[in-house]
Design brief:
Helix content: 10-25%
Mean pLDDT: 93
Number of strands: 8
Low-confidence stretches: none
């Protein structure tokens, strides 16, 4: 919802979701949208095979991940389809490694 308008965003168009204070920033190819919701609430509603929590403030759409590399110090760097790089949280290392083993990035 923005300036009284409500937008519908297809999940396949979402590149990533970032938490900012009491809002979520939903990033698509063309723009971003704000949603008043918690990341935990969103995480419980999306398919965990398609959307991965990789930081306390980020959920990424695995269909938009172009590459993932381990950068040491228990961190991974995700390169997204829009060229942005997102560094994972160190506490998510085991979760990410397991998810990538089950569903490797194409």
């Amino acid at each position: 919802k923005e300036k009284g308008r409500t937008y519908r965003v297809k999940l396949k168009d979402v590149i990533y979701v970032r938490a900012e204070s009491n809002y979520l920033v939903i990033q698509t190819k063309d723009r971003h949208y704000l949603l008043r919701m918690t990341l935990n609430m969103l995480e419980s509603e999306v398919d965990p095979k398609r959307f991965m929590r990789m930081h306390r403030s980020y959920i990424v759409n695995m269909a938009h991940v172009r590459s993932v590399r381990y950068s040491g110090n228990n961190e991974f760097v995700f390169t997204m389809s829009n060229g942005e790089r997102i560094v994972s949280g160190r506490s998510y290392k085991e979760h990410i490694a397991k998810a990538l083993q089950e569903n490797p990035v194409q």
